């Protein structure tokens, strides 16, 4: 393998790649130089046998063919002459009545004709006249490129390939840059499939005869090689695809010929080994002739393969167009599998290794798939050792590819390497893949789950001799260890979902799981908690047959078979867990976390089985008593909520046993209410001790948790709770637990009472009493907002937001009888809520207190609480409870707190425009006016004005792109802003202190229509004193109203130089290389980070070899293009393509005039522009997608993200505003 090292070490090898001696050398170079003058007698049109495609430099090609220097004299005169005509013809050769190029094209394009029939018809015409047949094939290729030019028979013998391509390029007068191979839609797939099928059938039909006729395939490959080097993308793409497919056919023929040669050689050796009496001399001569013929045929095919590989693949595998690179790599993968003797070596494998660094994901994807095909073959593994050792690091880094499809295939490739190679993957290398089981992309997570499952099986098989446990028990135990060591707690649902496709049987082994949990000394404490969590996740997955939050990929309808399997799983779960769940609750009753998880199990049961199966009915009473015991034992909110959810499910009227559950629930609530009432009088009189306060608080807390899911108005707890709150605030004895629970109980009473009023027809007196209760509760909450107790204050604000919305005008719009329940907040309450928002939501004081190491989780919890509070306030604005002007307290923090609350504020701005576009725009302006007034009051610096302008820019973008729709709102905003700038000074104020506000207002001018600009300019002059027109702020606002064209015209009149005169040079995109870091661990589960240091190969385009002189005409017209906005944003569309990328220097704009240079012929100029539109240069971003910068191990580009257990990005606002 030492000699193979050189193939991987350097990318500069291609820059020095020698094409000398190639049969295609003249053809390739002919496109880069002028036509040579041919004098004297004409050389032969076609080379002799074995000289058609002979390569004299075998060291430069992976396919070995002996050189023949005596035949190289024909290289520059091998009959590669053609000429194109722009005429449209159906039959190219009138004398030949066979199939035409258009007939072949139509058959390929439609896909409705059997390709064997088409090829047979063409072969018949070719056998009649091979020149005419070749001409038909050439014109078919030209037409497949989208060119309407036709090569005529008279011109076939007069010009070289370079001249043909040049003529076709000039005559390529198409209205669109599209060509058949880039046509979008199913038409593209049909045409491409037909084209590939035609080539395949052609080679297969010619493999025994015409492939060796010294004329057809050499001429065809010579033309395709020349076209593949064309600057016209249509020619280059189509010819490269055809050449690659022809090469694949030739490789197939070469393999067949090699097998035939080996078989014939064995027959010859066997015949020759016989004694002279038994040996047949005629048979020996016949076999010897066959061997010689097959060897000659093999050399002929190898010559054509060599020429195509070196003339097309070597240059096009790094073409600028990603589709071309993809085609090359796809075919290379097929050659490596079909003919490993010739191709499976380091000289060819290096192309796959280098292409792993490609910047386009489709190319990387095809490369990885090609490698998968190689690693699947055991006999190839030995030849892949050097490649594996050299590029394994790169492949492992690609598991974090920003394209999830590529990452999935790389994980599958890593599994093949793990399974097929002797060394496999080390534990630190496997550590790159293990965390992906928690990825949000389900395909990637499933692939990583498959990898993890196979790794776990290897560990289990290794320990099977030392352990007597069943295979499923061993799997569960090692999975628990992995889950604990992965340290991604609360994400068990994602681990189960990742493994569900391959380990479904193990994850549904309920018997083994419950046996582990019920035995005394089976698992350690932490392992029991992990197993319970995984078991609950597996129960949910089996019962619901849906992925966890964040992994749902559209709505998938379950088939009848899947629904039946799901129902069977639910019955198995129910039958197994109904008898065992009370036992599990008894054993783990002291652990709040485990009890909370176990209480979720009945939610996935088929609860009807409690009655339908007689032996299970007795367990319902046990379960109800267990739930009541847990409620009386625990005060943790999570446990109480789990009990409340389960009670709510069991009390559903859809079950026949619901009366039993209702009875148990009522008895539990009676006991808790009686306990609270026992201590109420002492609490109101102030004689209760700490134990009494604690007992009352815990009872109220349990009642509040149960009231969350069930109607508790029958227990009449509102008045006692309200009296308790008032007495506590009067005495200033603010017990946090007691008051928060009392607030919740009172609020839940009001909520259930409103729901009951909607569902029934209450008396008028009841409605008045309910409204009075609502008013009293709001006063209490208003007082709580000013308390110095965070929990009480936050709970009061959140409950107020919900209740004010529930008792708003909109809530009873469809119920006229409930109009008496409408309660609007008082002015004092509005002020208190606004003050709460400014003091505790848009404030960093609590965040600063948490700037301690290890407090990140608390900071996230605090942020989530603030987001909920802000969303509640915004809902009051959106639904009309608060005036739209109250949103100024929200809008003016849009820029400063964009990271934390930007999505909520943006949604509020958007919803406010639906309520009243003009009032919304005025509210935006009022927010800016308030900030500006605060700046003047606090005497801030000029820096604060720029911050307000940044806010104005953000708010201006919220008006959208439909300028006619936002016309009136914008005019209203500008009018209010101008009035504010020139309002009369108040007592003690200086004159016109607000004029600088016009600078902020100018940020909205670019959205104005031209007629509104003139109207506002006139309004400005009417409001502005004449002396103030020359002030800088006023002039800036006037310029913003004039627009770019008028502003530029005025500057030219004043002799000024506009900043727009010099276009900004495009900036190359620079991406810092990312890294993946993961902590090292000691067990087999450990992982370590891998940083790729392999260089990315340069991607070369044909046009990059053009000189600056050749490109200058194409760059001149760009000076006349509009550069509106170019001074505001820099374009990063220009991407560096290795050492071949030229630097673009900024040039000053020059006005184009007929006096500046000679007048060009309009027809010639039009022709040149048409030609330039078809030829790629390195600035043609509009013709093809850019090659994006790629850093697979960059953290911010990676699709490896841990999903949230609470929200997805799409559902956050829905949940907050629902």
Topology diagram in text:
Elements: H1 2-9, H2 25-30, E1 84-85, H3 101-110, H4 115-128, H5 130-144, E2 150-151, H6 161-170, H7 186-206, H8 216-228, H9 233-272, H10 281-316, H11 322-338, H12 340-343, H13 346-355, H14 361-375, H15 385-397, H16 404-420, H17 427-430, H18 442-463, H19 471-486, H20 492-499, H21 504-507, H22 510-518, H23 525-544, H24 560-587, H25 592-598, H26 609-612, H27 614-633, H28 637-650, H29 658-685, H30 690-707, H31 718-731, H32 736-759, H33 764-784, H34 790-806, H35 827-841, H36 845-849, H37 856-878, H38 888-891, H39 898-915, H40 917-937, H41 942-957, H42 967-981, H43 997-1001, H44 1010-1023, H45 1032-1053, H46 1108-1115, H47 1162-1174, H48 1212-1217
Antiparallel strand pairs: 1-2
Write structural notes for this entry.
It is found in: Nucleus; Chromosome; Chromosome, Centromere. Keywords: Cell cycle, Cell division, Chromosome, Chromosome partition, Coiled coil, Nucleus. Residues 30-51, 1140-1151 have a biased composition (Basic residues). Residues 270-304 form a coiled coil. Pfam families: HEAT_SCC3-SA, SCD, STAG. The protein has 48 helices and 2 strands. It has 1218 residues and is mainly α. Among the domains are: 98-319, no CATH class; 916-1041. The chain has a two-stranded antiparallel ribbon. α9 packs antiparallel against α10 (281-316) and α35 packs antiparallel against α37. The radius of gyration is 40 Å and the shape is flat. The model is unreliable at 1-60, 65-96 and 1051-1218 (pLDDT under 50).
């Amino acid at each position: 393998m030492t000699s193979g090292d050189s193939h991987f070490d350097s990318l500069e090898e291609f820059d020095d790649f020698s094409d000398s001696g190639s049969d295609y050398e003249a053809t390739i170079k002919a496109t880069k130089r002028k036509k040579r003058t041919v004098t004297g007698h004409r050389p032969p049109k076609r080379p002799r046998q074995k000289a058609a495609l002979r390569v004299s430099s075998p060291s430069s090609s992976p396919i070995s063919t002996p050189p023949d220097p005596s035949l190289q004299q024909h290289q520059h005169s091998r009959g590669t002459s053609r000429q194109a005509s722009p005429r449209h013809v159906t039959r190219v050769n009138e004398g030949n009545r066979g199939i035409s190029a258009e007939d072949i094209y139509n058959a390929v394009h439609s896909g409705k004709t059997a390709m064997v029939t088409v090829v047979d018809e063409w072969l018949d015409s070719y056998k009649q006249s091979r020149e005419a047949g070749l001409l038909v094939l050439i014109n078919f290729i030209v037409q497949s490129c989208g060119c309407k030019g036709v090569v005529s028979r008279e011109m076939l013998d007069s010009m070289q390939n370079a001249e043909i391509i040049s003529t076709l390029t000039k005559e390529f007068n198409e209205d669109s840059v599209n060509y058949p191979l880039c046509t979008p839609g199913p038409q593209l797939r049909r045409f491409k499939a037909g084209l590939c099928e035609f080539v395949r059938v052609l080679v297969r039909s010619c493999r025994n005869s015409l492939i060796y006729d010294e004329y057809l395939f050499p001429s065809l490959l010579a033309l395709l090689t020349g076209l593949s080097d064309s600057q016209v993308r249509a020619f280059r793409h189509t010819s490269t695809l055809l050449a690659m497919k022809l090469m694949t056919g030739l490789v197939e023929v070469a393999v067949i010929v090699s097998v035939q040669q080996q078989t014939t050689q064995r027959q010859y050796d066997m015949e020759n080994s016989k004694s002279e009496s038994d040996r047949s001399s005629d048979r020996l001569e016949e076999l010897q002739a066959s061997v010689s013929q097959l060897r000659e045929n093999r050399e002929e095919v190898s010559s054509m393969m060599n020429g195509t590989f070196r003339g097309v693949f070597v240059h096009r595998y790094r073409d600028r167009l990603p589709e071309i690179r993809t085609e090359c790599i796809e075919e290379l993968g097929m050659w490596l599998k079909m003919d490993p003797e010739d191709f499976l070596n380091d000289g060819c494998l290096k192309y796959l290794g280098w292409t792993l660094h490609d910047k386009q994901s489709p190319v990387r994807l095809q490369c990885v798939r090609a490698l998968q095909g190689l690693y699947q073959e055991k006999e190839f593994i030995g030849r892949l050792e050097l490649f594996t050792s050299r590029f394994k690091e790169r492949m492992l880094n690609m598991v974090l590819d920003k394209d999830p499809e590529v990452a999935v295939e790389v994980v599958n490739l890593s599994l093949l390497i793990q399974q097929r190679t002797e060394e496999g993957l080390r534990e630190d290398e496997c550590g790159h893949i293990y965390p992906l089981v928690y990825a949000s992309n389900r395909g990637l997570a499933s692939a990583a789950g498959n990898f993890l499952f196979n790794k776990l099986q290897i560990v289990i098989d290794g320990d099977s001799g030392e352990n007597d446990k069943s295979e499923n028990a061993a799997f569960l135990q090692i999975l628990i260890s992995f889950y604990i060591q992965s340290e991604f707690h609360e994400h068990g649902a994602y681990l189960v979902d990742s493994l569900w496709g391959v380990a479904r049987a193990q994850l549904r082994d309920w018997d083994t799981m419950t046996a582990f949990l019920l035995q005394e000394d089976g698992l350690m404490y932490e392992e029991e908690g992990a197993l319970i969590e995984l078991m609950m996740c597996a129960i949910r997955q089996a019962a619901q047959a849906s992925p966890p939050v964040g992994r749902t990929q559209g709505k998938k309808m379950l088939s009848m078979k899947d629904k039946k399997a799901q129902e069977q799983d639910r019955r198995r779960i129910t039958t197994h867990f109904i008898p065992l769940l009370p036992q599990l609750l008894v054993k783990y009753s002291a652990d709040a976390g485990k009890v909370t998880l176990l209480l979720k199990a009945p939610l996935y049961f088929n609860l009807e089985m409690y009655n339908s199966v007689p032996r299970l009915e007795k367990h319902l009473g046990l379960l109800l008593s267990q739930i009541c015991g847990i409620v009386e034992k625990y005060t943790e909110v999570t446990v109480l909520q789990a009990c409340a959810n389960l009670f709510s499910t069991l009390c559903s009227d859809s079950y026949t046993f619901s009366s039993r559950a209702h009875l148990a629930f009522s008895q539990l609530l009676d006991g808790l209410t009686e306990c609270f009432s026992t201590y109420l009088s002492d609490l109101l009189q102030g004689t209760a001790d700490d134990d009494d306060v604690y007992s009352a608080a815990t009872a109220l807390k349990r009642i509040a948790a149960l009231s969350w899911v069930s109607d508790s108005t029958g227990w009449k707890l509102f008045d006692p709770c309200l009296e308790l709150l008032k007495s506590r605030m009067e005495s200033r004895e603010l017990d946090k637990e007691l008051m928060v629970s009392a607030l919740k109980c009172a609020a839940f009473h009001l909520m259930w009472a409103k729901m009951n009023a909607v569902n029934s027809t209450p008396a008028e007196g009841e409605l008045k009493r309910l409204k009075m209760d609502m008013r009293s509760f709001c006063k209490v909450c208003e007082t709580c907002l000013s308390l110095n107790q965070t929990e009480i204050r936050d709970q009061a604000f959140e409950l107020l937001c919900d209740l004010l919305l529930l008792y708003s005008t909109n809530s009873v719009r469809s119920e006229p009888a409930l109009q008496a329940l409408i309660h609007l907040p008082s002015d004092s309450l509005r002020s208190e809520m606004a003050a709460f928002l400014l003091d505790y939501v848009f404030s960093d004081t609590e965040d600063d207190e948490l700037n301690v190491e290890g407090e990140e989780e608390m900071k996230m919890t605090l942020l989530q609480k603030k987001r909920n509070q802000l969303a509640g306030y915004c809902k009051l604005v959106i639904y009309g409870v608060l005036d739209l002007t109250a949103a100024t307290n929200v809008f003016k923090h849009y820029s400063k707190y964009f990271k934390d609350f930007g999505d909520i504020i943006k949604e509020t701005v958007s919803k406010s425009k639906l309520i009243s576009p003009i009032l919304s725009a005025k509210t935006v302006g009022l927010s800016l006016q308030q900030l500006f007034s605060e700046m003047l009051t606090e005497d801030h610096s000029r820096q604060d004005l720029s911050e307000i302008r940044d806010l104005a820019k953000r708010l201006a973008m919220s008006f959208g792109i439909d300028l006619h729709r936002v016309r009136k709102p914008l005019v209203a905003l500008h009018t209010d802003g101008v009035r504010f700038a020139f309002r009369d000074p108040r007592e003690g104020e200086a004159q016109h202190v607000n004029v600088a506000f016009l600078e902020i207002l100018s940020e909205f001018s670019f959205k104005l229509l031209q007629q509104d600009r003139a109207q506002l300019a006139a309004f400005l002059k009417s409001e502005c004193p004449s002396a103030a027109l020359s002030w800088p702020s006023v002039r800036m606002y006037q310029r913003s109203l004039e627009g770019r064209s008028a502003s530029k015209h005025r500057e030219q009149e004043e002799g000024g130089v506009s900043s727009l005169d010099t276009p900004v040079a495009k900036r190359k995109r620079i991406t810092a290389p990312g890294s993946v870091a993961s902590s090292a661990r000691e067990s087999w589960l450990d992982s370590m980070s891998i940083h790729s240091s392999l260089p990315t190969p340069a991607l070369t385009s044909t046009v990059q070899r053009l000189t600056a002189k050749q490109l200058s005409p194409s760059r001149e017209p760009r000076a006349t293009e509009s550069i509106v906005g170019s001074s505001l944003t820099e374009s990063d569309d220009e991407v560096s393509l290795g050492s071949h990328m030229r630097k673009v220097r900024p040039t000053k704009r020059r006005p184009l005039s007929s006096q500046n240079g000679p007048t060009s012929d309009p027809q010639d100029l039009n022709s040149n522009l048409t030609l330039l539109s078809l030829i790629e240069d390195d600035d043609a971003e509009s013709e093809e997608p850019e090659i994006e910068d790629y850093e697979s191990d960059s953290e911010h580009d990676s699709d490896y993200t841990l999903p949230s257990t609470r929200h997805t990005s799409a559902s956050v606002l829905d949940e907050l505003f629902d």
